[in-house]
Amino acid sequence: MKKTLIISALLVGSISAYSQGTVLFVDRASDVNIHVYAPQGQTATVETTGDANSAVGVTADIYEDTQANGFATTGTLVTGGSTVYTGGAIGNTKAGNATAAGAYHYNVGTDFTVELYGAAGYNTPLASLQPLSQYTSSLTTSGTYGGTFVAVYPSPDAGIPSTTGNQATIALYAWYSLGGLTLAEDQAGSGPWGVSPTDNITALGNLGSPASTPEDMLGLQSFSLEAPTVATPEPSTIALAVMGASALLFRRRK
């Protein structure tokens, strides 16, 4: 009897684990093509988002039009966009248009990590999205596909938590990770990082019986990274003590 109960509990746990909705974590698909760009010229500390027209060494962006309510429509694809990026696509090595290395090796895609964040439901705020570690990869280094990431097909796929329905909100983070730098460390000023606008996924996979096919990230937009700002150093304890002593002596002399 105990064995039966244990087996039943394991089966329920297994079903629960696979009831999470999944996505197809790919770039350079027939209907999804997004890019991650280096910081933007004179506005390096401000992130730019949106899709751009193709350039030498960069495949054309592809994105899905949206309705006024923010939900993605189906079947309306646009190649290229109007956003202008003055920073090159990360990892673009195309002769004549290669991205400059800079201080953070923007010409080496493997020095940058991308990770998908997600949560159940439509239009979930970015701050409420959670990291989905199985959807983690690096950017490519290529003369044709600069700025895109290496596809990952996790198996088994833990999916997006609590997505028993067919709806989820996602966003893609990217950051400079050479030497093991984390997203949090870059956000604190150690290196460049950025995040795409959020996107609603309308057809999650591995739900129902038979399991549905995962949808790719149709609607996700390209974005640039933010360069770290140089913080003004705070005065040390000794420096503060010296300043205090000087002020005290000045008052006594008066």
Textual characterization of the structure:
The chain is an alpha+beta fold and about 250 residues long. The protein has one domain (about 20-254). The chain is built from three helices and eleven strands; from the N terminus they run αβββββββαββββα. It has helices at about 1-15, 185-190, 235-254; strands at about 25, 35, 60-65, 70-80, 110-120, 130-140, 170-175, 195, 200, 215, 225. The strands form four sheets. Strands 5, 6, 7, 8 and 9 form a five-stranded antiparallel beta sheet that branches. The chain has a two-stranded parallel ribbon with strand order 1-10. It is globular. It starts with a helix and ends with a helix. Mean pLDDT is about 80; it is low at about 1-20, about 65-75 and about 230-245.
Give Rg in angstroms: 23 Å
Shape: globular
**First-last Cα distance:** 92 Å
Average pLDDT level: 81
Number of helices: 3
Order of helices and strands: HEEEEEEEHEEEEH
Number of domains: 1
The description of the largest β-sheet is: 5 strands, antiparallel
